[in-house]
Structure formats: structure tokens, C-alpha cells
């Protein structure tokens, strides 16, 4: 498989012995985007070995501070469940949240600012989803949050 410009900047998560690749968090052609992803990866992957590459060259390597919060079994084929990965503080002003009830399929738009005010910027989607309830069927969940972008004018 031929290398593309997409392979220039990437962030990988390795085991502590640097023997096995757990996941590739980010691939980007843009250095600025890659640096932002690097900072987010440090916050979101405590206790893990992160390596930031520019092509084959290691730009940064760090064993992130803290204890591992994501059990190894949640990493499946290099993908981490979004509910464990996204905090309310990661949302931007152009994001819109939609909550879907898994029981009755009712959906509604939810304002991120209201959720941040109630649960805090550090609240993860997985904990917020468990706290929400459907206003249509009143079953108290389960509710799934989806992130959408506002349409451009």
C-alpha cells in the first residue's frame, strides 16, 4: 500500500514496553491539527505510551501521567467507544447535540451549553447519556447522544 500525505503526522498508542500498537488515534496532513490531537490525546489517554510521528520520525514520545482509565478490552481493532472518549468541553460552538431514545426512537436537539452548565466541561458522554431521560416515553433512557455540525450560512 502506497504512503499518502495523510500518513505524514500520526499519533499512536503503544503498550508500556513499546511492543504492541494498541491504536492509531490520529492521522493528518496538517501539523497544527496534529498538535491539537496530541494535546487531546495526552488528556484522554492517562497512563499510556503515546508516540507522535512526522512520517517515520518520532517528534514526541510520552508516558502520560495518571492511571489507565480505559480498560484494554474496550479498545477493539484500534477504536475506542466514543462515549469513553468525548467530553462536553471538547465540543465547539458549531456543534449541535441530538439525543435519541433507544426505547421509542424519539429524538430531540440538546443544547451543549445547558449540559456543560449542569454536568461540567469534564463530563464524558457515557456518564451524561446515563443521566438523561426521554421526554416522550419517560422511561429514563437509554439515551444516545450524537454530535452534528451546524449548517454553514
Q: What would your notes on this structure say?
A:
- This protein has helices spanning 31-44, 82-85, 112-119, 125-131, and strands at 9-14, 21-28, 49-54, 57-63, 75-76, 79-80, 95-101, 107-110, 143-149.
- With 153 residues, the protein is of the alpha+beta class.
- The strands form 3 sheets. A 4-stranded antiparallel sheet has the order 2-1-3-4, covered by helices on one side. The protein has a 3-stranded antiparallel sheet with strand order 8-7-9. A two-stranded antiparallel ribbon has the order 5-6.
Tell me the layout of helices and strands.
Blueprint: E1 9-14, E2 21-28, H1 31-44, E3 49-54, E4 57-63, E5 75-76, E6 79-80, H2 82-85, E7 95-101, E8 107-110, H3 112-119, H4 125-131, E9 143-149
Antiparallel strand pairs: 1-2, 1-3, 3-4, 5-6, 7-8, 7-9
Q: What is the count of DSSP helices, taking H or I runs of 4+ residues? A: 4
Which spans of ≥5 residues are poorly predicted at pLDDT below 50? 72-84
Helix-strand makeup class? alpha+beta
Give the % helix: 10-25%
Mean pLDDT: 77
Q: Calculate the terminal CA-CA distance, rounded to whole Å.
A: 39 Å
Coarse morphology: elongated
Strand numbers in spatial order across the main sheet: 2-1-3-4
Radius of gyration: 18 Å
Number of strands: 9
Proportion of strand residues: 25-35%
SSE order in H/E notation? EEHEEEEHEEHHE
Largest sheet: 4 strands, antiparallel
Amino acid at each position: 500500500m502506497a504512503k499518502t500525505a495523510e500518513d505524514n503526522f500520526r499519533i499512536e498508542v503503544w503498550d508500556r514496553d513499546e511492543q504492541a500498537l494498541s491504536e492509531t488515534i490520529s492521522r493528518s496532513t496538517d501539523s497544527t491539527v496534529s498538535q491539537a490531537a496530541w494535546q487531546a490525546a495526552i488528556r484522554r489517554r492517562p497512563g499510556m505510551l503515546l508516540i507522535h510521528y512526522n512520517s517515520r520520525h518520532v517528534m514526541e514520545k510520552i508516558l502520560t501521567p495518571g492511571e489507565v482509565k480505559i480498560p484494554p478490552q474496550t479498545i477493539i481493532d484500534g477504536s475506542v467507544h466514543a462515549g469513553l472518549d468525548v467530553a462536553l468541553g471538547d465540543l465547539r460552538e458549531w456543534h449541535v447535540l441530538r439525543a435519541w431514545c433507544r426505547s421509542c426512537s424519539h429524538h430531540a436537539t440538546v443544547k451543549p451549553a445547558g449540559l456543560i452548565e449542569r454536568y461540567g466541561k469534564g463530563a464524558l458522554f457515557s456518564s451524561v447519556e446515563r443521566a438523561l431521560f426521554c421526554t416522550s416515553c419517560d422511561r429514563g433512557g437509554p439515551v444516545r447522544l450524537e454530535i452534528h455540525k451546524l449548517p454553514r450560512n
